[in-house]
Design a protein that fits this description.
With 560 residues, the chain is α/β, with parallel strands linked by helices. Helix content is 40%, strand content 23%. The chain is built from 22 helices and 18 strands. The chain has helices at 3-13, 19-32, 36-42, 48-59, 76-79, 81-87, 110-119, 131-158, 168-171, 181-193, 231-242, 302-313, 329-340, 374-381, 397-408, 424-431, 436-442, 467-473, 509-517, 521-530, 536-545, 551-558, and strands at 89-94, 100-104, 124-128, 200-205, 209-216, 219-227, 253-261, 264-275, 278-287, 317-322, 347-351, 362-365, 388-391, 412-417, 443-455, 461-464, 480-483, 495-506. The chain has a seven-stranded mixed beta sheet with strand order 12-11-13-14-10-15-18, sandwiched between helices. α10 (181-193) packs across α11. The protein is globular.
């Protein structure tokens, strides 16, 4: 019997798929000539996490996160990067008996097993791991090797010629541009950031060296730098890629790079800033083609989802996301838009910039040079027969006024504000000149959001709470909590990834009445807490108890 058919039947038995979906997948995967699992993952019939338990039982293989394995990179010479990525496998180690342990993403792939037997003739044990983790790990190792090679070439070449004395046309002319050390270094710095899950790249010139840093999980982490003598070539390459004026070095500039990395299209927003030792570059990384976040992925609990369901069910009103820059407000808004997007509604957005493109949604980008501001776009939107409007950010009184008017005239409006907590959004709108009665009438709910770091699953360590920790947590008896340690898989930080925490204020009738007659923030906050609002601190505290984050992350909320 066909292995793919048997696997589909097992997925139906385990209730991972419905019978109809399984039959459709078999037909469609055969038509496009691809692996059944690859097809299901691409079309989002399943997720890697959702299928892992069933897949483990079906093949009788243990499962593990690749990041928790101590990989011997010398074994890579047996197979090669292209082979490993194509066949979704990583050799991990060889024990004293000569047994090779291999992490695989496609179990029982006959072509992979056959090809491996040519490279290694001894016994092999397998462990099952998500394919995307294999891709990310191989990309990270490959990018580090490429960057190191480009740095070595650049260091060797700087002794022969000073890039600072040559213009861009001299540096990048001819047919061998791709092999120029500066070109290779810039490309590898950008591409290396992807598997490291970096959100930003900082390239900063100083007196003797140029520093490169990636922002990973909210913190800047150093990467290998390079000599300042080579920086002129690096600047020229970055400006050519992002469409900046090469000759202009006195004023800030903004540009954009579109690049395909690992089969995905990325948008890199480039910002240059003159400094004492030259121009500093910051590159924001956006994956424009894939947005698969759900509320669960974003950290919403079951209790919070009940309240959000009430908000999204409202036919009109404003739903606000609040928090500091970089806390994931836009990502959460996109997940909401994905939920309410269907052929029966007209959804229009105005953003600065458009971070993710979504099918079926009309997205507009702010262009201040053309006088396309948030307020200008909103006025035009109201003549476009919208049902749902998303505003990237309410920045001024004019935008706030139009958004409120849209909400009270029958539109559902999503937007963001910069406030410290959820009740603070109410007084912020009032400070912008919106009358209390209009705020009360228009506002459907406010969600304050922060990102806290996840403890690294490979190295986090359990221990009893001290007296001081018990005081901070507000408990009377010692309990076990996890603390960060640091290992090779988390860059010795003790953390891997981030999760959102939320404070949700639902505008029920009692809250609306209080908003209409009072501007006192403390009164509004007390009423919200009585109505069941959970503070950000409490949300983070629950993650500490669950071993997801640390007490140190909880303390950062107290510092605000």
């Amino acid at each position: 019997m066909n292995i793919d058919y048997e696997l589909m039947q097992y997925y139906v038995y385990k209730k991972v798929l419905t019978r109809k979906t399984a039959d459709d997948v078999l037909v469609d995967a055969a038509r496009v000539k691809t692996h059944v699992r690859d097809y299901m993952l691409t079309k989002e019939y399943i997720t890697e996490v959702g299928e892992l338990d069933a897949l483990s039982e079906y093949y009788n293989l243990p499962t593990i996160e690749l990041e928790m394995l101590d990989v011997d990179r010398d074994l890579f010479n047996l197979f090669g990067f292209d082979f490993m990525k194509t066949h979704k496998m990583v050799p991990v180690s060889i024990d004293l008996n000569g047994v090779l342990l291999v992490a695989i993403g496609r179990p029982m792939d006959c072509s992979t097993l056959s090809a491996m037997s040519i490279c290694y003739s001894g016994p092999v044990d397998y462990v099952l791991t998500p394919p995307s983790q294999i891709d990310r790990y191989i990309d990270a190792v490959s990018a580090v090797i490429t960057t190191s090679a480009a740095l070595n070439d650049l260091n060797a070449e700087k002794d022969d010629q000073l890039f600072a004395d040559r213009n861009a046309s001299e540096i990048f002319q001819g047919n061998d541009v791709i092999n120029n050390p500066a070109v290779r270094l810039v490309d590898s710095i950008i591409k290396e950031a992807i598997p490291y899950r970096a959100s930003d790249i900082h390239i900063e010139p100083f007196e003797k060296r140029v520093r490169v840093r990636y922002r990973i999980d909210g913190d800047l982490q150093d990467r290998p730098g390079f000599p300042r003598e080579s920086y002129s070539a690096i600047c020229a390459r970055l400006k050519i890629l992002s469409g900046l004026n090469i000759a202009e070095r006195r004023i800030p500039q903004d540009g954009r790079i579109n690049m395909i990395v690992g089969g995905k299209e990325f948008d890199f927003r480039v910002s240059s800033m003159p400094t004492v030792y030259g121009e500093k570059f910051v590159i924001r990384i956006l994956d424009k083609t894939s947005f698969h976040f759900t509320r669960t992925d974003l950290g919403f609990t079951d209790e919070e989802n009940v309240i959000i369901d009430k908000m999204l069910a409202k036919p009109h009103g404003i739903i606000l996301l609040t928090g500091p820059t970089g806390c994931g407000k836009s990502t959460t808004l996109y997940s909401f838009l994905k939920e309410v997007n269907n052929p029966t509604v007209n959804i229009i957005t105005v953003e600065d910039p458009v971070e993710f493109t979504m099918a079926g949604i009309n997205q507009t980008q702010v262009n201040t040079k053309a006088n396309m501001t948030f307020a200008t776009a909103l006025r035009a939107f109201l003549r476009q027969d919208p049902d749902i409007i998303m505003i990237g950010e309410i920045r001024d009184e004019e935008t706030a006024e139009i958004a409120v008017r849209a909400a009270i005239t029958g539109h559902l409006v999503f937007s963001t504000l910069h406030t410290n907590d959820a009740p603070g959004a109410i007084t912020r709108l009032e400070d912008m000149g919106i009358p209390e009665y209009l705020v009360a009438d228009a506002l459907a709910g406010v969600i304050a959001q922060r990102l806290v770091k996840r403890l690294c699953p490979a190295c986090k360590k359990r221990g009893k709470t001290t007296a001081k920790e018990m005081e901070i947590l507000g408990i009377s008896e010692p309990i076990s909590i996890f603390r960060p340690v640091g290992c090779q898989f988390c860059g010795n930080t003790g953390y891997k990834g981030r999760i959102a925490i939320h404070e949700i204020l639902f505008m029920d009738d009692e809250m609306k009445n209080e908003v209409a007659r009072s501007r006192n923030l403390d009164t509004l906050r007390e009423l919200a807490l009585k109505s069941g609002m959970v503070r950000l601190w409490q949300s983070c505290q629950s993650l500490v108890f669950k071993g997801i984050t640390s007490l140190a992350e909880l303390m950062t909320l107290n510092a605000e």
